C-alpha cells in the first residue's frame, strides 16, 4: 500500500485503533464481594447524561439533560444530536431526562422519553413517544402522550423515570417540584406521584383510582418526593422505586397500586436549613413503610436488578447509583426484604446518574460528573 491513498487508509486505520483504545480506557480496579472489578471508560464527552437504553444492535441511546439524544456506538463514539427532540426546560434539574425503548420497538421503532416541558409561566414533567431512525439520526412522529396537571415555577424534583411493566403499561415517576410538597398527598394532583398509562397515554381500566370522583385516574401511587430510580423485579414483575429525601430519608419502596408512601407527612427526612424533622413522624398505619431508608442521604439515582452471568454471586441483587454519595450501591435481597448493603466504587468520587445491566451481563453506569459511560466487568 503506497502513495497518498495508502497513507490515507493507514491514517484512518490508526485513527480507528486509537479511538477504540480511547473508548476502552481503564479507569481502575476495585475490590468487591464478587472479587476484583475492572471499570472501563466506554465513552465520554457527554453533557450531563441522564438516561441510557440499549438498542437491539448493541448501540446505546443516551439522553443529555440540556436537550439532546445521542447514539453511542460499540467503540464508544458519539453521534451528532438526533433531530426532532422537542424543546425542553433545561434549567436547574430540568431538561431531557429518562429514555426507554417501547415494548414493540423491534416492530415499530418507538422510543419514549421524559422531559421538563415549558408550559405557561412554568414547566412540567411530560412524556413523549417517537419513531427512532438511528442511522439517519432523527426522530419522527413525535407525540406528547402525558403531562403533569400543574406547571409550577422552580427547577427541582421532576422525577421522570420510565419503566414498562410486563403488561405493556408505562410507569412514570413524578416529583413534588420541591416547593409544592403538600400536593404529594392530594389525589387531584400529579405532583409527588407515580402514574401508570398505556403506550398511547390513555388510562388503563385497572388503575387503582379509576372511577373515583375527584381523583386523577392515571395515579398508581402517591406520597412521593422525587423518584429517580425505578425497575421491575425480574421474578415478581412488581415495580420497585427509590426516592430522594431531603437531609435523610432516602427510600427504597415496593411501589404498589393505590398505596400512600407518606411524603411529606410520614418521613425520616429533615429540613435542609434547620435540621428539624419533617411531618408528624416516621410511621403510620395507612402509610406503606420503605424497604430501606438512608439517613444521611446518598441521593439515589438509577436502579437495576442484576440477572447477568458476569457476576454470578450478585444475581438477584439490586444496584443503585448515588449522586451525593458518589458511589454504586449493591443491595442484597431476600424476597421483598433488603438484607445487606455493599458500597462500591467510592474511590471514583463521581456522581452516578443511571445504572443499567447490558445485554452482555455487565453493568453500565452514567457518570454525570465526568460526562461518560462506564462499564463494570471482571478483570
UniProtKB/TrEMBL annotation:
<dbReference type="InterPro" id="IPR012938">
    <property type="entry name" value="Glc/Sorbosone_DH"/>
</dbReference>
<dbReference type="Pfam" id="PF07995">
    <property type="entry name" value="GSDH"/>
</dbReference>
<protein>
    <submittedName>
        <fullName>Oxidoreductase</fullName>
    </submittedName>
</protein>
<dbReference type="InterPro" id="IPR011041">
    <property type="entry name" value="Quinoprot_gluc/sorb_DH_b-prop"/>
</dbReference>
<keyword id="KW-0732">Signal</keyword>
<dbReference type="InterPro" id="IPR011042">
    <property type="entry name" value="6-blade_b-propeller_TolB-like"/>
</dbReference>
<feature type="signal peptide">
    <location>
        <begin position="1"/>
        <end position="23"/>
    </location>
</feature>
<feature type="domain" description="Glucose/Sorbosone dehydrogenase">
    <location>
        <begin position="46"/>
        <end position="375"/>
    </location>
</feature>
Amino acid at each position: 500500500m503506497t502513495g497518498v491513498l495508502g497513507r490515507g487508509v493507514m491514517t484512518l486505520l490508526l485513527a480507528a485503533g486509537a479511538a477504540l483504545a480511547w473508548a476502552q480506557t481503564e479507569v481502575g480496579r476495585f475490590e468487591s464481594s464478587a472479587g476484583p472489578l475492572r471499570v472501563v471508560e466506554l465513552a465520554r464527552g457527554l453533557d450531563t447524561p441522564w438516561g441510557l437504553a440499549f438498542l437491539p444492535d448493541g448501540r446505546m441511546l443516551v439522553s443529555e439533560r440540556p436537550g439532546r439524544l445521542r447514539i453511542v456506538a460499540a467503540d464508544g463514539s458519539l453521534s451528532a444530536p438526533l433531530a426532532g427532540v422537542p424543546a425542553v426546560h433545561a434549567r436547574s434539574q430540568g431538561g431531557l431526562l429518562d429514555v426507554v425503548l417501547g415494548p414493540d420497538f423491534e416492530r415499530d421503532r418507538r422510543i419514549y422519553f421524559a422531559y421538563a416541558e415549558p408550559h405557561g409561566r412554568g414547566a412540567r414533567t411530560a412524556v413523549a413517544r417517537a419513531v427512532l431512525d438511528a442511522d439517519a439520526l432523527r426522530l419522527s412522529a413525535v407525540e406528547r402522550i402525558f403531562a403533569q396537571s400543574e406547571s409550577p415555577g422552580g427547577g427541582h424534583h421532576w422525577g421522570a423515570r420510565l419503566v414498562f411493566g410486563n403488561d405493556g403499561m408505562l410507569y412514570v415517576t413524578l416529583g413534588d417540584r420541591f416547593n409544592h410538597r403538600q400536593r404529594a398527598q392530594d389525589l387531584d394532583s400529579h405532583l409527588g406521584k407515580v402514574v401508570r398509562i398505556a403506550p398511547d397515554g390513555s388510562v388503563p381500566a385497572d388503575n387503582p383510582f379509576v372511577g373515583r370522583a375527584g381523583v386523577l385516574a392515571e395515579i398508581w401511587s402517591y406520597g412521593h418526593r422525587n423518584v429517580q430510580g425505578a425497575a421491575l423485579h425480574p421474578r415478581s414483575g412488581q415495580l420497585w422505586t427509590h426516592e430522594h429525601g431531603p437531609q435523610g430519608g432516602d427510600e427504597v419502596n415496593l411501589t404498589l397500586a393505590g398505596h400512600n408512601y407518606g411524603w411529606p407527612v410520614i418521613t425520616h427526612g429533615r429540613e435542609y436549613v434547620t435540621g428539624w424533622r419533617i411531618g408528624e413522624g416516621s410511621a403510620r398505619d395507612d402509610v406503606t413503610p420503605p424497604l430501606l431508608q438512608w439517613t444521611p442521604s446518598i441521593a439515589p439515582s438509577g436502579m437495576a436488578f442484576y440477572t447477568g452471568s458476569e457476576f454470578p454471586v450478585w444475581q438477584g441483587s439490586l444496584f443503585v447509583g448515588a449522586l451525593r454519595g458518589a458511589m454504586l450501591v449493591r443491595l442484597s435481597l431476600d424476597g421483598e426484604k433488603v438484607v445487606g448493603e455493599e458500597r462500591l466504587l467510592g474511590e471514583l468520587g463521581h456522581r452516578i446518574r443511571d445504572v443499567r445491566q447490558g445485554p452482555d451481563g455487565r453493568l453500565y453506569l452514567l457518570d454525570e460528573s465526568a460526562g461518560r459511560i462506564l462499564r463494570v466487568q471482571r478483570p
